[in-house]
Amino acid sequence: MLSRTADCLFWLGRYSERAGNVARGLAATLRMAMLAQPLSAEDEWRSLLIATGCEPGFRAKHASATPEAVIHWLTLDLDNPSGIAACVEAARRNARTVRTALTVDMWEAINDTWIEFRRLDAIVMKGDRLPGFLDWVKSRTVLFNGAATDTMLRDDAWRFVHLGTMLERADNTARLLDVRHPAFAPSPNADAAQYAQWQAVLRSVSALRAYQHVFHARLQPQLVAELLVLRKELPRSLHACYRAVDTVLDAIADANGGTRGACHSIAAHLHARTAEGDMAAILEQGLHGFLTEIIDRNIELGQQIGLLYLNGRQT
Amino acid sequence: MHADGAIRTPYTEMARFLDATGQEALDQKRREAEVLFRRIGVTFAVYTEGGDPERLIPFDVIPRILSKEEWERLSQGLEQRVRALNAFLTDVYGEQAIIKAGRIPRELVLENEGYLPQMQGFTPPGGVWTVISGIDLVRTDADQFYVLEDNCRTPSGVSYMLENREAMFRLFPEICARHRIAPVSHYPEELLETLKSIAPEGCTGTPTVVVLTPGPYNSAYYEHSFLADEMGVELVEGADLFVKDLVVYMRTTAGPKRVDVIYRRIDDDFIDPEAFRADSVVGVPGLMAAYRAGNVSLANAPGTGIADDKAVYPYVPEMVRFYLKEEPILSNVPTFMCERPADQDYVLANLDKLVVKLARGSGGYGMLVGPHATQEQREDFAARIKARPGDYIAQPTLALSTVPTLGENGIGPRHVDLRPFILFGKEVRMVPGGLTRVALREGSLVVNSSQGGGTKDTWVLLEDPPEAQRALPPPDEDARPTQSQSQSQSGRQQQGEE
Fold first, then answer.
1. Whole-model pTM over 0.90
2. Is B41 in CB contact (< 8 Å) with chain A?
């Protein structure tokens, strides 16, 4: 496969996933902000900016994190490269470039989203209509993932899309959890605010029900963290994501002459860390430190994948 | 339609169908077609205007129909013309016999912008220059087709030919089934076979073919990706290729891979910044050196622009006689060359009757349709012709034939042209028909998509339509499938929320 094609497929997967993740995060924050005191509401919005990794750009443009400003920044503002609008645009641009590597169903999922998005105006981001819009974005990414899973040949095209999706998803889960890490510090008696934080974390990865199905218990910080980091049953857990990344990178190496690079050892390391981790020990040593390392390794993993497969090496 | 108002035989069944269908239903089909094309992403880009950067070319739902006999004659003429054009290219970049024989002016060829001195003395692999040609034809009456222009560089539009047919099958399955329409969908296979057949001699095994595009912002990008997809080959941009030791490679996830044949949809000027325009960012440095070394084939060969230059066009019938010793089957439109004083005088005196075009350039830009122009426009062109006569040619407005087309106020006659695509490798191949372009504005003669033209499906009928409408066979009662299994509702209680 052409390196550029692989690059576009990889980023198609990442941007599509990112659009959905921003929508999930925004929906969860919207709920939190409704519950919170006015003073801590601003913290909620700032947390979301940090979790989506686009706070610096926001700061350059806005003085304070008002709900209106953050919502606009994360939805329609094309200046934000991680906003929903920019993600939809970038996903579609990548898809169009490698139109031939996609199935018709995938193309239509992406293209219809893009066409629909261009018809939207700022009014759908306001008040009562925002949750409906966010649901729509989520459903479009679910449709895209379904189209990819159900219609693609299991060849390199599928592998690079899937690689991008899973790498992005891991990054998102790690950031979402990290931004609320103080709520996971061992403390004798948790208050309602902390409880709401755990709920928000679960909600933003669509795992509130899943928690109950797995643990049949009241929310406990260690179990919430365990579900999101270590449990392979949860499709958005770090373990599930890195298992997929590790497996798919192996398959890519096998299909491309057997050469392996740094990306393979990083992926294997991250897979092992999340598969064999012990949550009590991780919390003991500090969740923030653990997640920061994961996020940094994840960035390095993306760069190494680029070097070996996406940038077009000449040897 | 015949001049006397009778319906031409190939259209009889279609006429019955249109009578029975009615405007409203046809309008509905037209809207469906638009949704279809938008969803598939069949678009082209127009950059000189504002608005939607990805526009649809309007699709007319009424097909243009040719009989088998009409097509057979056309295809013979097309093959003859393409062979003559290739012989001309071999000659002007070789011994230049046609110039020495005085059959075409030396300056017209050698000082032409379309002539690439770099190609002098070079023979492309297989001796073929125009692997893919598109020849634009117009019709004036039942028997007479004229060649309007030759496109020997990178003719586009074949994807519309293919997508239009698919759209017709989807929108009008019944009326399609009532005709025996010659298929076109094998074009990509024919193209791939043709491209493989021009692989460099040293290429062993199955040649690696790629389509080279300037990128997604090119107006014909959809077509580039469509053809690559249909042929199952890579669609590459300049940056995906590199040349090492006079060999072309593409950058892949498994490392460099050698490329044998490049179907390039990039103009000559831009294919190699080392050989032509140094500011080209879409080309491949070193490509021409690899090409000259015989390590890669290009389709079309660089330098074919001299064969489809509008100032060279009047000499094509002469090429047929000179190289093939045959009489041309297809006629040229009589053409006045403004650089000839006598021709210029005639053109200036008859601007209201003529179509004036730039001798170089494409897409209907910079064109004057005399009968439809204002006095001011004609005066503007008269001044331009006097200033740079060599840039302009003029042709009479032909009594172009029209075909029925769906307009705002019902079905009416509109002018059309036809662009068949001719493939030339070891042999000449064509799929029956081509792309019909239609001037959607009533009375307009300009069919270019950049100037508000549309397209139609083009049918070549393998036999005349049936006299009487064939009834559809009754449904086969025995062929019903057995009911598929469904989940039992009784065994297990539904889990529900409280």
1. no
2. yes
